[in-house]
Amino acid sequence: MVASVRRTLRDIDAGITPVDIQTMEQRVSESTSRRRFQTALLVSFAVLAVSLALVGLYGLLSYSVNQRAPEIGVRMALGATRPTVLFMVMRWGLTLTAAGLGFGLASAFAVTRFTASMLYGVIHSLAAAVGLQNNPVANIFGGNTVSSHSRKPAVACPLY
Description:
Elements: H1 2-12, H2 24-67, H3 69-77, H4 82-118, H5 124-154
């Protein structure tokens, strides 16, 4: 395609020397490459942050269950069933998750006006809606982390 453009320009006027001939797709790609790189970098850091948060939540629950192992053992020895112990650990883990989500939502609403004032064309209710849209995903991740680790004490030996 470049050769045909050069040939056509040479046929029209031999004095014209085309220097930088590119397709529109190449020009658009070149002009947006920096923004795409920044976006990819931001997404990778966001994924890393979510991964670290999930590992931290899992570690906290693991530590809590290990600290409460004697209590769980006594409860099971006194007749607590597996679903009761599972419910106890799930309730504690989901309480932590709900507290974190509540704190996150409160912070998001508090910072919304500040964020909206810094971004052109963004109203504060739109920024809050974006914050609300992302929280169910965090709730699902948090719930999965809690449920995957809360099964451990239910099958543990009562005399840990």
